[in-house]
């Protein structure tokens, strides 16, 4: 939860570097909250039988995704910076299948040790 809060505090900070743990814990809690909201929305929509409740939670989910779009993009860019790659490499994921696999490998790989052109090593700072 510490890393999720850290990413929210760096809401739209695209400079610097993010450790693997910061990126993956943010993704984990993002998915937990997302799935939790979807399950609650589905249960309440079925129990109430009302389309209004389903619509309300649909709007709530859209607001959740929009609110967390910038933090998730910024932590992704900072994670790429940690591997000494430009944030523009996010667009490699638009290449079908191969781009997504390459991006995933980069996100799972260890960051460069010591300082790089994007800042100091986050392992040494924290």
UniProtKB/TrEMBL annotation:
The keyword Membrane applies. The chain crosses the membrane at residues 23-47, 53-76, 88-107. The keyword Membrane applies. PANTHER family: INNER MEMBRANE PROTEIN YHAH-RELATED (PTHR34980:SF2), INNER MEMBRANE PROTEIN-RELATED-RELATED (PTHR34980). This is Uncharacterized membrane protein YhaH, DUF805 family. It comes from Thorsellia anophelis DSM 18579. GO terms for cellular component: plasma membrane. It comes from the Bacteria. It holds the Pfam family DUF805. Keywords: Membrane, Transmembrane, Transmembrane helix.
């Amino acid at each position: 939860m510490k890393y999720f809060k850290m990413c929210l505090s760096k809401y739209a900070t695209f400079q610097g570097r993010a450790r693997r743990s910061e990126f993956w814990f943010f993704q984990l809690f993002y998915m937990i909250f997302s799935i939790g909201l979807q399950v609650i929305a589905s249960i309440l929509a079925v129990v109430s039988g009302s389309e209004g409740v389903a619509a309300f939670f649909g709007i709530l989910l859209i607001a959740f995704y929009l609110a967390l779009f910038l933090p998730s993009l910024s932590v992704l860019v900072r994670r790429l910076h940690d591997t000494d790659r430009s944030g523009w490499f996010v667009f490699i994921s638009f290449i079908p299948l191969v781009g997504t696999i390459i991006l995933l490998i980069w996100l799972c790989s260890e960051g460069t040790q010591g300082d790089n052109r994007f800042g100091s090593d986050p392992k040494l700072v924290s």
